[in-house]
Amino acid sequence: MMKRVSVKRFQSISIRIVATILVVAINDRFECRSIDWKQIPINSTTDLQNFSLNFKENVLISNDTFQKIDDDDRIVKENFQNANNLIDFWSTINKKYYHHYLSLLNDSIVLNQLIDGNFCDDNDRIDLDLDRQCLALLKRTLLDPLQNEWSAKLLDSSATILGSGLLSGTFTNYGDFDQCLRIQASIENHQDFEDNRLTRKSDRINFYGQYCLMSFGLRKSASVIDFESDRSLRNLIELKDDRLGPHWRRKFIQNWIEINQRFRMTRGICLPSVCRAKFVENLFRKAIELLKKFELRLEYCQTKNQTQFEEWLTIKISLSLIIVFLLILITSGTLIETLQVERIKNQDDFDEQIWDRKQSILKCFSLISNGKNLFDFVEKRNEFPWIDGLRSLFTMMLVLAHSTLSQGVVELSPISPFQHFPDNFHRYSRIVSNWYLYNSLFLVKFFFVMGGFLVGTNHLRKSKSGLNRMNFFRFFMNRWLRFTPSFIGYVLFTSIMGFIGQGPLFHTKIIENYLLPCWNNLHWHLFYVHNWLDFSEMCGFQSWYIGVDFQLYLIAFPVLYLFTETTKSRTKIVWMMIVIMITISYLSVLFIFVRKIHGIPYFISVLYPQLPVARKGFLYYWTATYNHLDSYFIGIALALLCCRKSPQLNLSKISIDRLLFLSLALMLIGPLLFAPRLKSILGSEENIGNLIESYSLLDVFITTLSNLISVAGISLFFYICSNYWSAIKTQLSFRFLSNRFWLPLSRLSFTIYLLHVPINWFLIHQQRHPQSSTEFELVCRCHH
C-alpha cells in the first residue's frame, strides 16, 4: 500500500525548509566583490545540527526520518494532469526539497550571487552593513531564541508556516502585530555575539520590531482560467486521480486552486528593523525556486516609527483644513443659536428678522437646529407615513446583508481576512433564511421603486398646486444639491477612517485601492456617472446606487414633464414611455445572459466567493442603469395611479387583505429563487467551471423570474398602501410601520447607507486575527 504523508509531517517538513534557508543565509560571510567566495570555509552544516538539536523535540523531524521517505511517499504525484499546469508545483514537495536545501547549504556561491548581484554596488555600502546586522540578529534568534527577550518575541510574533485551519480555508495568519511593533533593543556586538564574522566589532545594533506581511500564490502565468473573457471560460478540472490520495486531499487541492484565483496564502513575520524588505524577499524567493509555479511576494514591512500614507501628504493637509473649517462652522452656528435662544428667553430688544437673515448660513451647521429637525415628531408628515417604517426596516436589512454574508468591502483586497473560507459561506448559504441576505437585489429594487414613487408623487402634487414649473436645469440642480453635500461628507469620512486605522491590513499598499478612487475619480462621482466605472474605480462599492438613482431621476424628466398636463394624448405617450423603459430593462438583462458576455454571472459569483471579482457581471447585471429602469419607472407608474383623477377600484376589506398577503408572499418567494443553490439543494451541485460555462436558459429564466416576482410584490404592496391607506391604517402592522419613532431613522437612512460600508471596512481591517465570514455573526449565531 502506498505510504501517505500526514499533515503533521508536511508541516514539520515545511518548518524545516524555512529554518534551513535562514541558517544557510546567516552562516555565510558577506563581503563585496573583492573576496574570493570559493575560499570561504562553510560552517553551516554544524549550525544546522545545533539548530536541529534545539528544536527536534518540538517541530522538526530528524534526518533519519527524512531518509526513510521513498519516491512514492509524496503529497501530490508528478503525473498530476490538467490542473492548470501545476505539475512542477505539486511534484517534489518532500524528498527533493531536502536534497535541494542540503546542496544549497554547501554552496556559498549561490548566496554570493543573491547578495553580490543586488546589493554590492558602490552606492549600497550602507545597505550591505544593514544586511550584515540583519543576518547576525537572525542567527542569534534561531540558535538560541530564549536567550534574549527580543529574540523570543520575534519568533513569538511571527505566524507559523502552515498555521491552523488550513484544510478548512484559513489562508491568513497575521501573527502578533502589536507585540512585534513594541519590540525595541540595543545590542553591543562583542557582548551579544560569539561569532563576529557577520558584523563589525565597532557596530552597535539598535533596532525595533518590524512587521512584514508575506503572501504566497500561483504565478499568473500558471493559471489558464480566464473568467472574464467573452464566451471563452474554461472549466476547472475536477480532480479524480486516485493517486493523489484520499478524497479529502483531492478536494483540498481543488479548493486551493480555485481560491488562489482570488486570495493568496498570507503570513505575518516579525523581523528586526535593520532587515531590508528587498533583502528578505530575495532570500525567501531563493528558498522556493524549485516551485516554479509558486510566487512569493512581500506585501509590506513597517515599524512603529514609520508614517503611513506619506505620499498622501497633500490630501491629508487638505482634509485637515476642511475638518477644521467645518468644526469652526459647527461651533459658530451652535454658539450663535445658543445666544439667540438666551436673548429670546430674556426678551432682549433686537431685530430677529435681520439676525436670522445674516446668520442663516451658520445656523445650518448648528447642532441645536439639526438635532431638533432630526427628532422633530410634531412636524406634519407626508401622506404616506408607512414609508418611514418600511424605509428604516429595509435600510437595516441592507446593512445586515453587507455586514454579514455579502461583504463586498474585501473584494479589492489581495488578502483574505476570513477563516474557513469559503467553507463558512457555503455552509451558511444552505440556510434558507440567509438567502435574503445573499440575494439582496430585492432590497435594492425596493429602494428604486420607492424612489420613483416619491419623485412622482412629489412632482405631481407640486404641479397640481401650481408650485412646480418644469425646468430641466432647476430639476437637475435640485437633485445635485441634495446629493453632493452628503457625498462629499462620505468621501471625507472614508478618508479619515483610512488614516486613523491600525492593524495588519491597515497599510498603504493594502487599503489604498479602496481610498484612491475617492480622490482620483472624484469628478466622475460628483457628476454621478461612476456606476459605469470598473468596480475597482468606485469610491465604495455601495456608491453605485447614488449614480444610478441620479441618472434615473434625469431620465424620468420627460415622463414627468408630459404628465404635468393630463391630456389623453399625453397620458398615452407617458404610459408608452413607461412600458418601453421597463421592457428595455428586462430585454437588456436577458440579452446579456443569453449571449454570455458578462464573465462570471451575478447569481454564481454571489454563492461562490472564492471566484475572482466578477467585474463584468457586477457592471452588466448590477450597476448598469438599464438594470433598474423597471423598478424606478414602476414606482413612477404607481405615483401616477395614486394621483389620478379617476376613482379607485372598489375593493372590499377582505380583497385588500388578500392582496396584501399576496404582495408579502411574492416578496418572500422572489429572493429564494436562486438557480445554483436550488440545484445544490436538489443534490446536483456542479463543478464551478462547468457551472460558469454551461448554465442553461432555465437558470437565466429562474434568475429573471426572481427579479420579476420581487418587483411585483413590492409594487403591489405600494399600490395597496397608497390607494387604500384608510382601510388598513388601523391594523397593528401598519400602525407599527407608521409610528413616529421611525422618523429619525428614516431621515438618516441615506446617511446610514453611505457610511455603513466604510465603517464595516474599518472594522474588518482592524482585526488582528482571521474572522468568520460574517463580520458580526448575527445571522449564523441563530442557527448554531
From TrEMBL:
Keywords: Membrane, Transmembrane, Transmembrane helix. Residues 131-303 form the Nose resistant-to-fluoxetine protein N-terminal domain. The chain crosses the membrane at residues 312-336, 435-460, 480-500, 544-563, 575-598, 618-643, 655-675, 695-720, 741-764. The keyword Transmembrane applies. It comes from the Eukaryota. GO terms for molecular function: acyltransferase activity, transferring groups other than amino-acyl groups. InterPro entries: Acyl_transf_3_dom, Nose-resist-to-fluoxetine_N, O2_lipid_transport_reg. This is Nose resistant-to-fluoxetine protein N-terminal domain-containing protein. It comes from Sarcoptes scabiei (Itch mite).
